[in-house]
Specification:
With 120 residues, this protein is of the alpha/beta class. The protein is built from five helices and five strands; from the N terminus they run βαβαβαβαβα. Strands 2-1-3-4-5 form a five-stranded parallel β-sheet, sandwiched between helices.
Amino acid sequence: MAIILVVEDEIFIRQAAEWAIEDLGHRPLMAEDLAGALAHLSAPGGIDMLFVDIRLGALPLGGYDIANQALQLRPGLRVLYTSGSPLTADMSEQFVGGGQFLQKPYSPEQLEASVGKLLQ
């Protein structure tokens, strides 16, 4: 069982990700913004992976800002990025922490494969 921090600003997508991660046998931690993510990242206890939406409205670089700060607090953290936009070279150049990408909408099977690949 892995502990996966999900950062997603859209509540319905966040809830769907939470349920899908639980169905995979992992433990999700949920945050809707940078402050929530930093609270989890600063707390004691392990976090194995960050699953972050690239396009978070309140931040200049969205999920990239969160991923960069997360890796400063927890070096070695694996990062799975998601977005409703197709992956571009500009997007992938900013990936850190293993930098896998999962395009929305994704199926539970696609999420399982992406999580499994990152956690290997």
